[in-house]
């Protein structure tokens, strides 16, 4: 086998291995997601929506910059988010929400997909914002805006 053929073979084998790893990872994430959604629906039977979300940050605590997947629950009283890996929980009372917007930059991080940014008043009366990547961000934004009116 000449060096060119060997290089092509190594490249193909590497791509196949990477593809298999990606498929397995997506299957695991899908299973975790379904389990977390079911758990959240049990915990919040009154939920208006339970959806997958990717945490983008919290301005009230800049040290909480660790992005991560989790479950966002929308109820009539609050937005509740729990990250899968860290198990951090964030609660934003609906009565404290000032506005909701879709942005492409949140806390200095740019995104090609819209970030759902929720501006709210914190427990100490300070202005704060929390952000998530969610599927169909526009309809989630509208749902929250309906609750705050």
Features:
149 residues; alpha+beta; seven-stranded antiparallel β-sheet; 2 helices
Helix/strand class: alpha+beta
Total strands: 7
Give average pLDDT, whole number: 90
Radius of gyration: 20 Å
- How much helical structure, as a percent, in the residues? 25-40%
Question: What general form does the structure show?
Answer: elongated
Low-confidence stretches: none
Reported for the largest beta sheet, the result is: 7 strands, antiparallel
Secondary structure tally, helices:
2
Cα separation of the termini: 71 Å
What is the H/E string? HEEEEEEEH
How much of the sequence is in beta strands?
35-45%
Strand order of the largest sheet: 4-3-2-1-7-6-5
Would you give an account of this structure?
The protein has a seven-stranded antiparallel sheet with strand order 4-3-2-1-7-6-5, sandwiched between helices. The chain contains two helices and seven strands, in the order H-E-E-E-E-E-E-E-H. It is elongated and about 70 Å long. It has 149 residues and is an alpha+beta fold.
Topology:
Blueprint: H1 3-43, E1 49-58, E2 68-74, E3 78-83, E4 89-93, E5 97-106, E6 109-121, E7 127-134, H2 137-148
Antiparallel strand pairs: 1-2, 1-7, 2-3, 3-4, 5-6, 6-7
Short description:
The protein has two helices and seven strands; from the N terminus they run H-E-E-E-E-E-E-E-H.
């Amino acid at each position: 086998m000449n060096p060119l053929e060997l290089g092509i073979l190594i490249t193909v084998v590497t791509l196949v291995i990477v593809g298999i790893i990606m498929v397995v990872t997506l299957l695991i994430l899908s299973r975790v997601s379904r389990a977390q959604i079911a758990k959240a629906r049990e915990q919040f039977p009154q939920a208006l929506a339970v959806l997958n979300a990717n945490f983008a940050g919290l301005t009230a605590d800049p040290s909480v910059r660790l992005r991560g997947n989790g479950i966002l629950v929308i109820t009539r009283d609050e937005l509740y988010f729990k990250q899968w890996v860290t198990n951090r929980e964030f609660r934003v009372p609906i009565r404290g929400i000032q506005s909701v917007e879709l942005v492409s930059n949140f806390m200095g991080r740019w995104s090609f997909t819209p970030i759902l940014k929720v501006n709210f008043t914190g427990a100490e009366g300070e202005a704060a914002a929390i952000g998530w990547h969610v599927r169909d961000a526009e309809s989630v934004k509208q749902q929250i805006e309906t609750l705050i009116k």
